[in-house]
Amino acid sequence: MATQRKIVHVDMDAFYASVEQRDDPHLRGKPVVVAWKGNRSVVCAASYEARKFGVRSAMPAITAERLCPEAIFVPPDFVRYKDASRGAREIFHRHTDLIEPLSLDEAYLDVTENKTGLPTATRVAKTIREQIREELNLTASAGVAPNKFLAKIASDWRKPDGLFVIQPHEIQGFLLPLPVGRIPGVGRVTESRMKAVGIATVRDLYRMELSDLEGHFGSYGTRLYQLARGIDHNPVVANRVSKSISAEDTFQLDIPLAETEQQIRRLAEKVWRASRDNARGAKTVVLKLKTKQFNSLTRSVTPSVPPSTCDELTTIALALRERIELGPQQLFRLVGVGLSNFQLDAESPLFEDESAAASAEPSI
Questions:
Q1: 234 with 345: CB under 8 angstroms?
Q2: DSSP states of 74-91
């Protein structure tokens, strides 16, 4: 059997909102929504106090205001968020150099061999969380598992401020009862498609033949077949170059910003279809514009929860227009929409075969 990996997924709790609450004592314990307030703005993050009212990242800010009238809206300050993210990254590097950031607030760490000599990945995760609390005055949740797929699920299991470990011999018992919606990358649309063919839980996936899954979901069916068995060959890739999917349109006649909505909606639909076909989840939404004078502008946002539907992507892309401040007289000749910072990458061997994966029982 190949060497058993020990993977930690660290996810900062309500990161942007937590930074705001940390830096402003008056916000602590209150429903904080990180967003520009406006009809077309979207929520970048929500504190756990706001989430109790149903406020979620990527929803329109006007919806968040309706759900939680007492919410305190705070405009995003990415300079401070990046600074806090760098602090967490420095802590990660004390333990391993195999770090794969997914966004400002989460990362995978391969601690199969850690730099501090701690005996288990569980101890490493516990120490990292303690250091984040003591040095950054923030909390983080962590998942520990033999691969990235399971570590990602585990980090969300006891949020906020939690630690959950999936030992190799516990994989099937843990996975099979889960609803398929708990699989990272399975959004509401894919989940609906699965339910239409009788798949509601991971156990349902497990029982299906590979050929049937490929017939229903194409190449993604192979991935689902492996995930239902707890198999994920993707290594932690440090210093990964971000990939992107984008589409753009040059207008026949230059138009003002206010008239770009129809094109943005169409381009968002095109990008969403392309990203789903590749079965990859993206964290960052990008809006590109080119003025009549051929000056290019880009605006981007990385919400704490990536868009899970085309409508959410469209809402975010349209909201990014609010950050273009060139005046109503400015005309534009091109608009583009993009997704980047993808979560899934190429595979490399982890286990020699599936039977080895099922029988391995070392402690992590």
A1: yes
A2: E---HHHHHHHHHHHHHH
Q: 54: helix, coil or strand?
A: coil
Domain boundaries, the chain: 1-166, 172-237, 244-342
CATH of domain 244-342: 3.30.1490.100
- Catalytic residues, by residue number, are 106
Do 244-342 and 172-237 have the same topology in CATH?
no
In the chain, the amino acid numbered 49 is E
- pLDDT > 60? residue 148: yes
Alpha-helical (H) ranges within the chain are: 15-23, 48-51, 61-67, 78-93, 121-136, 148-155, 171-175, 188-196, 202-207, 210-217, 219-227, 261-277, 310-319, 354-359
Residue 92 has a CB neighbour count (10 Å cut-off) of 22
Q: What are the residues whose beta carbons fall under 8 Å from the beta carbon of 175, sequence distance 6 or more?
A: 150, 202, 206, 228, 230
CA angle (354 as vertex; 348, 358 as ends), nearest 5 = 120
Cβ(111)–Cβ(154) under 8 Å?
no
| pLDDT: which is higher, 216 or 24 | 24
Select the CATH number that applies to the domain covering 172-237 from these four: 3.40.1190.20, 1.10.340.30, 3.30.2310.20, 1.10.150.20: 1.10.150.20
Q: Which of the two residues, 14 and 42, has the higher pLDDT score?
A: 14
Distance, in Å, from the CA atom of 208 to the CA atom of 362, rounded to the nearest integer, reads 29
Q: What is the pLDDT of residues 96-128, one digit of tens each?
A: 999 999 888 999 999 999 999 999 999 999 999
- Phi-psi sector, 54: left (phi>0), alpha (psi -120 to 50), beta: left
Rounded to 5 degrees, what angle do the CA atoms 181, 349, 216 make? 40
Top-tier CATH class for 1-166? alpha beta
